Amino acid sequence: MQQAHRNRTEVTFAGRENHPPGYIRYRCPPQIGGTVASGEGPVISSNKTCTVIRGRYLNTSKAATGIEGLDDILAGGLSRSHVFLLEGEPGTGKTTVALQFLQAGAAAGEISLYITLSETESELRSGAASHGWELDEHINIFELTPPESLLDADHHQSLLYSSDLELGEATRQIFEVVERVKPTRVVIDSLSEIRLLAQSSLRYRRQILAIKHYFTRYNATVLLLDDLTTEALDKTVHSVAHGVIRLEALTPTYGAERRRLKIVKYRGQKYRGGFHDFTIAENGIHVFPRLVAAEHRSNYSRSQLSSGIPELDNLLGGGIEGGSSTLILGPAGTGKSLISLVFAVQAVARGERVGLFIFDEEMGLLFERMLKLG
After folding, report:
1. Residue 274 — very low, low, confident or very high, per pLDDT cuts 50/70/90?
2. CB neighbours (10 Å) of residue 36?
3. What is the pLDDT confidence band of residue 367, given thresholds at 50, 70 and 90?
4. Could you give the count of Cα atoms lying within 13 Å of 147 in the half-sphere of its Cβ?
5. Where is 102: in which H helix or E strand?
6. What is the DSSP string of 12-31?
7. What are the structural domains of the chain?
8. Cα-flanking dihedrals φ and ψ of residue 102, to 5°?
9. What is the pLDDT of the chain when averaged over all its residues?
10. 37-46 average pLDDT score
């Protein structure tokens, strides 16, 4: 069986010889996120369905977020039919992540639903357009806001009710639109409004549990957004959600603003822990997973690396040993940068790749000085 969506080819292998001509038979890789070699074609599996999206293996038991770095951290994406919490203060990128999550579902032909209690539909569409996205017929937006009749002077105080009646009405509307749309992916934005409606922590917890059990029956993958605007840090949803992702925006005294995320919990799944930097660009979120030294070890030669200066090589016993670390010390103007760069030039001449990290000097000025030295 073959199903084609945008940038996606799915093939399920049903027998030893029963596969389309020209396809190469593979088993699903033991780890998600591996790279498909060029020209090898789609994946065919004898035990489960694998998916190739833009040359990468994905496990179809997980809903890809559409953010490559985040999917790598989550080992493929969010486990389907579960509820996840995405939390962060206003402006940290929650809505952008949520829209990208729904865009990934739409690209795979899935029906999605965005339930908003805080932003209008026009604001969401405008935000999506700023990233070059068009919310097509696969993405439904349900704006859960009070009717216009409540905006007059006599009813302005009732925009958000705290009674059981209004909380139940909001929940009923959510369930009704889900029954009508039958989505595979759902975003609820945000929990702050539901928390205000609930008024008490006990009622709020019961409501979140009811939402969780309801969507589990419908096999929907749900992303709950929380802007952390309450005075006390509320951990109610942490214990209920299958996974928790936290977004942060840091503004240091010196230097540029920094954004980072952390997987707080992910039940029964392996994930890359720690903080991971990310940026919000015109085309969406870009996540840069934290590097783990053990994953980047490679074989290297223990041979001496020459500087190209015979006298210096003689002092070093033939050069710097491959795989070692060398510190060059000296006051300003003694040639530290020059000595390090002659090793880099020789490495390039041998056909090796060189990484150059500069903190105190502008790149163009450095190259200009080196050109003058020949």
Report:
1. very high
2. 18
3. confident
4. 2
5. helix 94-107
6. B--SSS-S-TTPPP-PPPSS
7. 1-60 (no CATH), 63-294 (3.40.50.300), 298-372 (no CATH)
8. -70, -35
9. 80
10. 35
Among candidate residues 313, 302, 368, the one with its CA nearest the CA of residue 339: 313
Strands (E), 175-327: 185-189, 221-226, 243-250, 258-266, 275-281, 284-288, 304-305, 320-321
Are 247 and 87 in contact, with CB atoms under 8 Å apart?
yes
pLDDT, tens only, 82-106: 999 999 999 999 999 999 999 999 9
Distance separating alpha carbons of residues 23 and 44, to the nearest angstrom: 8
The count of residues in the chain is 374
Other CB atoms within 10 Å distance of the CB of residue 258: 14
For residue 66, the one-letter residue type is G
Residue pLDDT, tens place only, 52-86: 433 444 456 899 999 989 999 999 999 999 999 99
Structure tokens at 296: 């980047």
- Taking only Cα atoms into account, the Rg of the chain, rounded to an integer number of angstroms, comes to 27
pLDDT tier at 146, thresholds 50, 70, 90 = low
Please give the torsion angle defined by the CA atoms of residues 279, 273, 244 and 215, in that order, rounded to the nearest 10 degrees: 100
Dist CA 220 CA 159 (whole Å): 29
357: left (phi over 0), alpha (psi -120 to 50) or beta: beta
* 306-317 pLDDT per residue, tens: 999 999 999 999
Q: At what angle do helices 191-198 and 164-181 cross, to 10 degrees?
A: 140
Quick one: angle between helices 201-217 and 164-181, nearest 10?
Answer: 10
Q: What pLDDT does residue 57 have?
A: 42
User: What is the DSSP code string of 324-360?
Assistant: --------TTSSHHHHHHHHHHHHHHTT-------SS
